């Protein structure tokens, strides 16, 4: 190849050649004379190409120095530190101003070395020798140089033009496949903005290109690709791109406007790149960016849907990603949520922007930009495009009174039109063609067969087909049809018509396609003389079809029951048979006859009239003739899609015309307007080809008492949303198949409409909708779940148009399946206001749950604690409890005993299974907690059901405890009938059944000791929350910047019982090192699962901190055998079954095993994964690319990444900090082991593993305690740990124990904080003090009488929700970073926790009454706490009514009943309280006051309380004296009186947590307070 030169900025400095290094080097030696040349490349390229480069240099005979330097490959090298290293090296080697730098490599080398050249000695000459495709077509040209910073890519750099750009295409032979593809992104970009013809060529070249780079290898050198088939193409691409770029750069060197357009795909692409680098390459991010920016153009109305589809398709054809959710992206970068806000924030630093206004390159057509520069676009429009979900705002008033919408073309008609137009003679313009895989494959195949020429007009809106009238040639390669079913059927007959005398047509498809049947069609064609052979399996593709074997014609028969596509295929090919054809469908009524009619109808439009036999049914006569295409063929719109715009008119009282479908349509759903909309009250005007609907005034749609939608099942969802606002009952039937579509659509409509207050009844064959007035639709904070079903999404968008509140619709992209531009039409034509909405916002929005919650089933042996646990789960999840035994008795109106006696066990088990099925199937209506009978697993029917539930990712909990304990318990309990057989035998029989039938295990510890029962209850409540999809607590934990977990290194946790409470101080989680567990009977080996089960249960009793469950292998620093994968997997899955919060997953485990665990975890988001890797020997340095890859590998499975190395020198800690900065996307635990690595532990941040002096051994060398980490931070002067002052403010406080409590905690965790007293009742004095202290003020505890006044010092927006609800604060916090002050109230939590603790674990307060004594500031917190406990009637006892009234006024929603005199307690309606909180001073003597009389009356035990041992709790809020008179009185009457120190400790712990983010244990607090 000759050297081709391109001129840029007035000089011919771009040279393109193949194997031209000699010429290039000669030019350098002659025209860039110097004493020193510096060649810089990367360590990957050096061995491949340096010898060739050096040889070429030697060839010049130059005597000047040629120094070479290599850097690590990859984006991470484009850094300040690499630049500095190169500069230092050049200085050391005496490089001066005359040095010439040769940058040999990809864009990384080019950009970075260019920047070195730009600044070295204020700028030296340099030459670009690009080696990657991306560098050749883009980065090396134009003089932009840059490096990355942790804030983003390319943020620091300069314009510095290279003297030459030498492009040698031979370099590409060693380029890895992924890099090749990466470069194609820029090539496609250039064509997309500038060169429509080149874009077409690229579309056509895709398969050749991909085939070549993927498969053709040079046999001599397997790493080399033999590029000869695409050498021409590459030369064309490189020359073309270089020419365009040179032209643009020459016109606008410094990027004033025009040069912007090269940035198409980059505004958004760069934002993704900033978060995804280095896992996703530049070109890959640009590909995603191009799709988004094209979609943005379409949304803003500048670009057609067809063009967007072409861009998407071409990227896919070159194996480029089109979305961050693509499998390829997710497997490289991990499954992560990238907040739209974050992307937009990154986009804000784009150099193109005009101040705060963002600029994006919009397209007008393929090959043309909207403006000759980037266009200003609003953040909200960008957000819509980037967000996965949408919020629809009420915009009824904005909807235009009349609109015209053309929905996408019908798929069936599009495919037929392509075949017919290609087989015709003459030119046919096809409009409204559907862009889908099917049509795409069809076009490609027809081109390959040379059946027609295709071109696009009118911005891609019109496809021009120049048919060859049936003349075709055998293609030179096989025809690949993907999974395009219709195309494969139609083309099988068409391929037989290829007239050549020799040649073969191979039809093939993807794996799925190769399983789909085609036998009946092939049989029929063969019988008519066609030569077709199966290549692999009989009856399916691939097929070998001999050219020149056209059907003989004459009489052809086909079974009527086969697919109508076979019939259509033969019909369309029939005119080319050697004789006229008579086709008979025999043996019954043909299926989908309407599609056969459609084909006949369309053949008529293309000039051939098929005659139906007047006598014989289903017999057709097809003449021997030639197709003649009409000049224009407009594809009828898809009728199901058309229902949405028409329904928009119906529901909003406006007019909408769909000009592309009318009464002549053969599509079933075309009847929707006349059969559904008209009877609902719309005016419908339908012509042959158009439909116009005008809705009645909003709110006046009429219900349809009974409508058969069998002929248009897909449209039933559209009908449902209209019926929802047509007051009365609409009953739809004939749609049974809709239970098993993309989702159970009938169930989906029931659940989703219920969210808006519309009741539906789910029926086997249909649905009843109880329509209501528009104004009565209920406001919901929940989002509409689309179940990834386009029809659900589009239907609800119709309803959202009249919904009077904002409505969130999840997963907007699901409409892509049939109508990618639906939201553009919705917003652009109907003017409905949209806002983008992010995944995390949806999850965080109150009341919303990520998935429809399903019922939770609880199984287990009788006596295992099933009913108690079910009750707790029900209370915590707020889902109603159903006891199956009771429910059966209710339904059958007999006791279980009677049922069994009368009908026998078998029948009883059957009834049980029936009920179970019902409970499960009605899951979408109302989820419940189901407590099942102990023996339910005895029936196979029920077992199958449970397994089905688990397979559907439902939740079945097996509740169990030590079987001997169960045994003892049941023997003691005489109220229950004993088992007929030994309990142990029963257990042995059922053991595996319980296991198979459950997804989770809750192993209940023994509950007799009440001291720890609260932990169990709290843990269970938390698990229940996670089971219903609320992961807030864990998400919050991961969001905090500095957290710790304690590694428990015990063989048996019983040894930890006494120390754990103190040892966890400051930690937010505990790690259970499963590999270290050893039962007393076991000396070594693998811990037994049953022992591990007991240990997890024990840990749940010892602490309510989240558990990190770790099976650490030997090679990763633990004691678990390295290759015992099966055992490791079993144990890890046991942890998942037991609902631990985190499991550690070592990245060294086999991939399959990791995937299985990942799936088990991911299917129900109850547990999270910490993906870990330990470089135990410190083999790799932190700036080694190795760690980037390891991060990527871990991020794939883990919500948290944990990387551990060994520090060999102190500097390793600094390198680690750099690494952390570069990897901000997932919570990252990164530490260096060893004493030298301690600094890294101090600096780690999230979830630092810690030890405590009370533990027997450290889990790893160099491990520190929480106290040591804080001391370290403090000594380093770290801004997170400044010396701060805290206060208690109020009066009197001389005896307050708060200072002892907080100073004790601070000291324990090593924080340099002090807590002092400030006695005052004047809030201004407090304010003055705060100002005086300035930055050293940390916060304050506020007590009487300032709790209300203190509200004034805090801005309203800075009050916590609880503080606002209570109307008083007890905690002030100053955020050290911002200086803002925040107000909170922890009193109520102190009260609530103390009561729960004292009442024991098996207590629920729902429906009970409570008493508050006093009506001041603390009483507010007490009222709120009682309310939060579930108490419905709250009595307030106070001397005067006015304070009670102000309480009532404040808590308007609550039922607060005053008690002013003794009569009030004797009223018939009086419910004796079971909880009381005293909020009056403890030091005022009660004497024989009125108060005492009333109190005695209220507190005295009543017969009404019944025989149940209700433990009544009185909580004293005064903490002096320790035993107040009220407490004495309560105890006298049999109450459990709790001293004020308890709530003091509980609220103090909460306060401490607010101030420090750390957890503190109760026992320690108590110890400090008691002194
Ligand atoms: N300055 C600009 O105008 C501009 C334009 C686009 C992109 N860029 C920058 O370019 C960089 C991306 O460039 P890149 O994609 O070339 O990445 P790269 O430089 O990292 O090269 C990719 C990989 O391919 C290897 N490689 C390169 N040529 C090879 C060959 N011939 N044979 C074998 N291996 C080879 C490299 O060693 C490297 O591992 C990004 O930093 C991007 O920001 C700059
Ligand atoms: Zn680029």
Automatic annotation (TrEMBL):
It is found in: Cytoplasm. SUPFAM superfamilies: Aldolase, Aminoacid dehydrogenase-like, N-terminal domain, Dehydroquinate synthase-like, EPT/RTPC-like, NAD(P)-binding Rossmann-fold domains, P-loop containing nucleoside triphosphate hydrolases. Its EC number is 4.2.3.4, 2.5.1.19, 2.7.1.71, 4.2.1.10. Residues 1048-1268 are annotated as: 3-dehydroquinase. This is Pentafunctional AROM polypeptide. The active site is at residues 255, 270, 814, 1174, 1202. 7-phospho-2-dehydro-3-deoxy-D-arabino-heptonate binds at residues 122, 138, 144, 154, 186-189, 245, 259-263, 266, 282, 351. HAMAP family: EPSP_synth (MF_00210), Pentafunct_AroM (MF_03143), Shikimate_kinase (MF_00109). The AROM polypeptide catalyzes 5 consecutive enzymatic reactions in prechorismate polyaromatic amino acid biosynthesis. Keywords: Amino-acid biosynthesis, Aromatic amino acid biosynthesis, ATP-binding, Cytoplasm, Kinase, Lyase, Metal-binding, Multifunctional enzyme, NADP, Nucleotide-binding, Oxidoreductase, Transferase, Zinc. It comes from Tortispora caseinolytica NRRL Y-17796. Residues 69-181 form the 3-dehydroquinate synthase N-terminal domain. ATP binds at residues 860-867. InterPro entries: Aldolase_TIM, Aminoacid_DH-like_N_sf, DHQ_synth_AroB, DHQS/DOIS_N, DHQS_C, DHquinase_I, Enolpyruvate_Tfrase_dom, Enolpyruvate_Tfrase_sf. Residues 1283-1571 are annotated as: Shikimate dehydrogenase. Residues 183-353 form the 3-dehydroquinate synthase C-terminal domain. Zn(2+) binds at residues 186, 266, 282.
């Amino acid at each position: 190849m000759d050297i081709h030169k391109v001129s840029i900025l007035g000089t011919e400095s771009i040279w393109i050649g193949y194997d031209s290094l000699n010429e290039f080097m000669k030019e350098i030696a002659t025209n860039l004379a110097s004493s020193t040349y510096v060649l810089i490349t990367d360590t990957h390229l050096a061995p491949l190409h340096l010898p060739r480069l050096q040889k070429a240099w030697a060839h010049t005979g130059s005597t000047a120095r040629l120094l070479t330097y290599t850097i690590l490959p990859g984006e991470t090298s484009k850094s300040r530190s690499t630049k500095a290293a190169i500069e230092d090296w050049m200085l050391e080697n005496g490089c001066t101003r005359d040095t010439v730098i040769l940058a040999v490599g990809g864009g990384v080398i080019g950009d970075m070395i260019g920047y070195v050249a730009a600044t070295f000695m204020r700028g030296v000459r340099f030459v670009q020798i690009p080696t990657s495709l991306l560098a050749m077509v883009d980065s090396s040209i134009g003089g932009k140089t840059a490096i990355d910073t942790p804030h983003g890519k390319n943020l620091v750099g300069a314009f510095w033009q290279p003297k030459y750009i030498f492009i040698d295409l031979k370099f590409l032979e060693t380029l890895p496949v992924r890099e090749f593809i990466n470069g194609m992104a820029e090539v496609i970009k250039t064509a997309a903005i500038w060169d429509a013809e080149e874009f077409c060529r690229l579309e056509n070249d895709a398969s050749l290109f991909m085939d070549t780079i993927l498969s053709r290898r040079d046999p001599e050198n397997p790493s080399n690709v033999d590029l000869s088939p695409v050498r021409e193409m590459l030369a064309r691409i490189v020359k073309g791109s270089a020419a365009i770029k040179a032209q643009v750069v020459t016109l606008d060197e410094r990027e004033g406007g025009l040069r912007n357009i090269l940035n198409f795909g980059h505004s958004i692409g760069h934002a993704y790149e900033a978060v995804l680098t280095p896992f996703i390459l530049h070109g890959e991010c640009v590909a995603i960016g191009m799709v988004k920016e094209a979609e943005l153009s379409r949304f803003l109305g500048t670009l057609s849907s067809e063009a967007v589809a072409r861009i998407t398709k071409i990227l896919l054809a070159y194996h480029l990603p089109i979305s961050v959710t693509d499998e390829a992206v997710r497997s490289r970068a991990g499954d992560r949520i990238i907040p739209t806000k974050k992307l937009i924030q990154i986009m804000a630093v784009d150099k193109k922007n005009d101040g705060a206004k963002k600029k994006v390159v919009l397209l007008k057509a393929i090959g043309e930009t909207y403006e000759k520069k980037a266009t200003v676009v609003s953040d909200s429009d960008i957000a819509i495009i980037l967000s996965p979900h949408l919020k629809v705002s009420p915009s009824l008033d904005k909807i235009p009174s009349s609109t015209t919408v053309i929905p996408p073309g019908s798929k069936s008609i599009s495919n037929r039109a392509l075949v017919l137009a290609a087989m015709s003679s003459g030119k046919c313009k096809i409009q409204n063609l559907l862009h889908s895989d099917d049509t795409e494959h069809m076009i490609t195949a027809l081109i390959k067969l040379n059946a027609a020429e295709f071109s696009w007009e009118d911005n891609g809106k019109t496809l021009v087909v120049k048919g060859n009238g049936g003349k075709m040639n055998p293609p030179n390669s096989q025809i690949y049809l993907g999974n395009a079913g219709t195309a494969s059927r139609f083309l099988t007959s068409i391929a037989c018509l290829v007239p050549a005398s020799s040649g073969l047509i191979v039809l093939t498809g993807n794996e799925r396609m190769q399983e789909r049947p085609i036998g009946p069609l092939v049989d029929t064609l063969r019988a008519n003389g066609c030569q077709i052979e199966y290549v692999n399996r009989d009856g399916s593709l691939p097929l070998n079809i001999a050219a020149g074997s056209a059907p003989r014609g004459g009489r052809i028969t086909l079974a009527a029951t086969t697919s109508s596509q076979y019939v259509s295929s033969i019909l369309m090919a029939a005119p080319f048979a050697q004789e006229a054809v008579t086709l008979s469908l025999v043996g019954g009524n043909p299926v989908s006859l309407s599609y056969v009619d459609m084909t006949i109808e369309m053949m008529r439009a293309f000039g051939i009239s098929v005659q139906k036999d007047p006598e014989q049914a289903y017999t057709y006569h097809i003449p021997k003739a030639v197709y003649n295409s009409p000049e224009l063929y407009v594809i009828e719109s898809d009728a199901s899609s058309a229902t949405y715009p028409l329904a928009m008119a119906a529901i909003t009282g406006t007019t909408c015309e769909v000009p592309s479908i009318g009464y002549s349509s053969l599509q079933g759903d075309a009847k929707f307007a006349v059969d559904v909309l008209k009877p609902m009250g719309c005016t419908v005007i339908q012509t042959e080809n158009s439909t116009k609907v005008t809705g009645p005034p909003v709110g006046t749609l009429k219900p349809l008492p009974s409508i058969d939608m069998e002929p248009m099942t897909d449209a039933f969802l559209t009908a449902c949303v209209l019926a929802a606002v047509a007051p009365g009952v609409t009953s739809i039937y004939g749609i049974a198949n809709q239970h098993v579509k993309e989702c159970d659509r009938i169930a989906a409509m029931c659940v989703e409409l219920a969210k808006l207050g519309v009741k539906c009844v789910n029926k086997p064959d249909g649905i009843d909708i109880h329509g209501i007035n528009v104004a009565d639709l209920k406001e919901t904070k929940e989002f509409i779940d689309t179940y990834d079903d386009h029809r659900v999404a589009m239907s609800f968008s119709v309803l959202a148009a009249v919904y009077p509140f904002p409505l969130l619709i999840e997963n907007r992209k699901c409409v892509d399946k049939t109508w990618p531009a639906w939201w553009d039409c919705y917003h652009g034509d109907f003017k409905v206001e949209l806002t983008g909405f992010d995944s995390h916002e949806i999850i965080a929005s109150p009341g919303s749950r990520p998935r429809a919650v399903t019922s939770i089933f609880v199984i287990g042996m009788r006596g295992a604690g099933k009913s108690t646990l079910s009750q707790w789960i029900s209370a915590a999840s707020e889902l109603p409890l159903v006891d199956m035994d009771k429910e059966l008795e209710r339904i059958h109106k007999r006791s279980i005993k009677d049922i069994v006696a009368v009908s026998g066990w078998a029948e009883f088990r059957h009834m049980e299974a029936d009920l179970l099925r019902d409970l499960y199937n009605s899951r979408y209506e109302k989820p419940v907690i189901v407590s099942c009978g102990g023996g339910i697993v005895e029936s196979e029917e029920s077992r199958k059901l449970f397994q089905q539930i688990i397979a559907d990712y439902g939740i079945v909990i097996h509740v169990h405890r030590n079987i001997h304990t169960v045994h003892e318990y049941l023997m003691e309990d005489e109220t229950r009938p004993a088992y007929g057989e030994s309990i142990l035998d029963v257990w042995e029989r059922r053991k595996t059944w319980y296991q198979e039938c459950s997804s989770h295990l809750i192993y209940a510890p023994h509950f007799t000791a009440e001291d720890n029962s609260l932990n169990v209850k709290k843990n269970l409540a938390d698990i229940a929350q996670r089971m219903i999809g609320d992961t807030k607590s864990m998400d919050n934990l991961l969001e905090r910047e500095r957290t710790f977990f304690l590694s428990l290194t015990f063989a048996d946790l019983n040894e930890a019982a006494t120390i754990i409470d103190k040892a966890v101080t400051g930690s937010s989680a505990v790690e259970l090192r499963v590999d270290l567990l050893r039962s007393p009977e076991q000396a070594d080996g693998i811990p037994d699962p049953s022992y591990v089960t007991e240990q997890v249960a024990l840990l749940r009793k010892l602490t309510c901190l989240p558990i990190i469950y770790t099976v650490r292998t030997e090679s990763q620093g633990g004691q678990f055998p390295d290759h015992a994968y099966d055992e490791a997997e079993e144990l890890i899955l046991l942890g998942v079954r037991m609902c631990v919060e985190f499991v550690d997953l070592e990245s060294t485990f086999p991939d399959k095993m990791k995937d299985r665990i990942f799936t088990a975890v991911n299917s129900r988001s109850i547990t999270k994964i910490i993906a870990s890797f330990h470089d135990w020997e410190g083999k790799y340095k932190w700036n080694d690319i190795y760690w980037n890859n390891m991060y990527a590998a871990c991020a794939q499975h883990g919500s948290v990444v944990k990387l551990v190395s060994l520090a060999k020198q102190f500097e390793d800690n600094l390198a680690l900090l750099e690494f952390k900065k570069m990897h901000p996307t997932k919570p990252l635990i990164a530490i260096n082991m060893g004493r030298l690595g301690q600094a890294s532990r101090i600096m780690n941040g999230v979830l630092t593993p810690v030890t405590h002096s009370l533990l027997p051994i450290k889990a790893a060398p160099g491990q520190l305690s929480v106290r040591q980490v804080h001391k370290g931070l403090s000594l380093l002067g770290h801004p997170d740990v400044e010396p701060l002052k805290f206060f208690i403010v109020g009066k009197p406080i001389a005896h307050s124990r708060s200072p002892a409590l907080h100073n004790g905690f601070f000291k324990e965790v090593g924080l340099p904080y002090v807590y002092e007293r400030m006695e005052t009742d004047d809030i201004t004095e407090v304010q003055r003090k705060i100002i005086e202290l300035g930055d050293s003020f940390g916060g304050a505890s506020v007590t009487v009488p300032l709790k209300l006044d203190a509200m004034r010092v805090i801005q309203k927006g800075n009050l916590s929700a609880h503080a606002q609800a209570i109307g008083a604060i007890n905690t002030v916090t100053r955020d050290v970073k911002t200086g803002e002050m925040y107000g909170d109230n922890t009193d109520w939590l102190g009260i609530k926790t103390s009561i729960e603790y004292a009442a024991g674990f098996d207590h629920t307060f729902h429906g009970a009454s409570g008493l508050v004594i006093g009506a001041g500031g603390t009483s507010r917190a007490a009222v709120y706490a009682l309310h939060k406990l579930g108490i419905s009637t709250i009595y307030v006892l106070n001397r005067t009514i006015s304070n009670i009234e102000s309480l009532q006024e404040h808590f308007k929603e609550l039922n607060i009943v005053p008690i002013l005199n003794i009569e009030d307690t004797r009223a018939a309606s009086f419910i004796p309280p079971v909880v009381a909180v005293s909020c009056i001073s403890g030091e005022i003597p009660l004497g024989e006051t009125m108060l005492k009389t009333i109190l005695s009356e209220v507190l005295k035990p009543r017969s009404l309380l019944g025989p149940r041992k209700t433990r009544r709790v009185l909580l004293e809020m005064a903490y002096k004296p320790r035993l107040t008179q009220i407490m004495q009185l309560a105890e006298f009457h049999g109450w459990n009186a709790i001293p004020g120190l308890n709530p003091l400790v509980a609220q103090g712990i909460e306060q401490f947590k607010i101030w420090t983010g750390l957890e503190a244990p109760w026992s320690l607090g108590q110890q400090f307070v008691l002194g």
